[in-house]
Specification:
Layout lengths: L1 H9 L2 H18 L4 H34 L2 H33 L21 H6 L6 H7 L2 H17 L5 H22 L2 H16 L8 H26 L4 H18 L2 H15 L4 H14 L2 H17 L6 H16 L7 H11 L5 H11 L3 H27 L5 H4 L5 H6 L7
Length: about 425
């Protein structure tokens, strides 16, 4: 038994995740009645991930900011990170819109047969902008308000840096807490293959393999949109801006992309992405620990593409021919909605109300669209989360290049330094 466990641990993480994924699909197909008995494993795994999200984002951003230790550099990293994410997000929404116009997945879609899903009131642009600044940080932490948490964490980290010598004890304490948290993350990530196995078995047992049949064109459009976003936006940034060999970059990113595909969650991918960036891509810890948590909250290329695509899908299903003004409104509100989407599975569906409301679609009609798509959204979400994970690592590599926070080609082939190894979660997927 011990030898079998060691052999299992010797397999790289992304391969173990794919084994769990394939096993879950087979169990759901061949023995669907068994799926309810293992569903609790998937639920426990999701709870463990959610348990870690807020403390990881909060502590990682503060410790990342303090690790930079230079107020001028900190401002440069923040501006460049947000600016680059804004650019890739706008491109993603545009690609989603164009893909939907070309593929036309919503034409003739029987959304009237879908079950209306209850929606909350869409958040206005004013509320989105003002809500970034928390009134009560404890309340924001409890509610998991990511944008508010990031704002406070960055402000607190800046204050620690600006405090100079007096702030150094706090900075050291935060670095220590970050290392402990990442050790905990390493333990949780060892459970990923089993959590994925249970989640996929349950999903396939409930919906069968025909989950894509009813929304085949929409699924095709999602895949096309993800590939176009990666090829036309991420690849040029990796090659021309980050100046990294493309094959080496994506080989290093495989663990993070596999977890993104399996969990459909940018938040769940964050711990693995941090390890990949620090250990495999040899990106400076301060840069990676600052950029990647921000990306987990606002770097939603897959979500942005999907919001744009699904907005046009909805208009097509409702028999509305979008004009130039409507397309521009979808682009603007879609980008903002993607920035404010929680990094959890299917969250983008509930941001759709804000986008469609801007072009005159009623909440009742939006509810019908969501009721039609929701049963099939899990696999669609898995696909588009890959684009978000790719975007986060791409932007991190670009910012690291600009800030000098990356080792040269010869250094990348050397073992990771001790302090970055301590920071990253332990794993056998080297």
């Amino acid at each position: 038994m011990r030898a079998l466990f060691r052999r299992w641990q010797a397999i790289v993480l992304w391969r173990r995740v794919l084994v769990g994924l394939a096993g879950g699909v087979l169990l759901g197909l061949l023995w669907p009645s068994a799926a309810p008995y293992i569903a609790f494993i998937g639920e426990i795994f999701l709870r463990l991930i959610r348990m870690l999200v807020v403390p990881i984002v909060f502590v990682a951003i503060i410790s990342g900011v303090t690790a930079l230790a230079d107020p001028q550099r900190l401002g440069s990293v923040g501006v460049r990170t947000i600016g680059l994410f804004a650019a890739t997000t706008a491109c993603a929404v545009s690609i989603g819109i164009v893909t939907a116009l070309l593929v036309q997945p919503g034409v003739g879609a029987p959304i009237g047969s879908g079950e209306a899903y209850p929606l909350g009131e869409p958040t206005s642009l004013y509320d989105q902008l003002v809500g970034i600044v928390p009134v009560n940080i404890v309340e924001a932490l409890v509610a998991g308000d990511m944008l508010a948490i990031i704002f406070f964490a960055m402000a607190f980290g800046c204050a620690v840096v600006l405090a100079g010598e007096e702030g150094r004890p706090v900075a050291r304490m935060l670095q220590s807490i970050a290392r402990v948290l990442f050790r905990l993350v390493g333990l949780v990530m060892e459970l990923t293959p089993f959590g994925v196995f249970a989640l996929m078995a349950t999903a396939v047992a409930q919906n069968g393999v025909a989950v894509f049949a009813n929304v085949g064109l929409l699924a095709l459009a999602v895949v096309i949109g993800v590939l176009v976003q990666i090829v036309l936006v991420h690849v040029p940034l990796i090659v021309l801006v980050a100046r990294r060999p493309l094959g080496r970059f994506y080989r290093a990113a495989l663990d993070a992309l596999a977890v993104a595909l399996a969990t459909a969650s940018s938040a769940a991918t964050l711990p693995v992405a941090l390890r990949v960036a620090i250990e495999k891509m040899k990106i400076d810890r301060g840069v990676a620990s600052t950029v990647l948590p921000i990306g987990a909250s606002i770097g939603k290329d897959g979500t942005a593409m999907y919001v744009g695509l699904l907005s046009i899908f909805s208009l097509q299903a409702l028999g509305v021919e979008p004009d130039a003004a409507m397309l521009l409104m979808v682009l603007l509100t879609g980008a903002l909605a993607a920035f404010g989407t929680a990094p959890i599975p299917s969250a983008s569906l509930f941001m759709l109300a804000a986008v469609l409301a801007s072009v005159g679609v009623s909440p009742e009609q939006t509810a019908l669209v969501i009721g039609f798509v929701l049963p099939f959204d899990r696999l669609l979400d898995m696909t588009r989360t890959v684009a978000s994970a790719s975007a986060n690592l791409t932007v991190t590599a670009c910012v690291a290049r600009w800030e000098g926070g990356t080792m040269d080609e010869s250094a990348r082939d050397r073992p990771a330094p001790p302090d970055s190894a301590e920071l990253a979660p332990s794993s056998q997927s080297q």
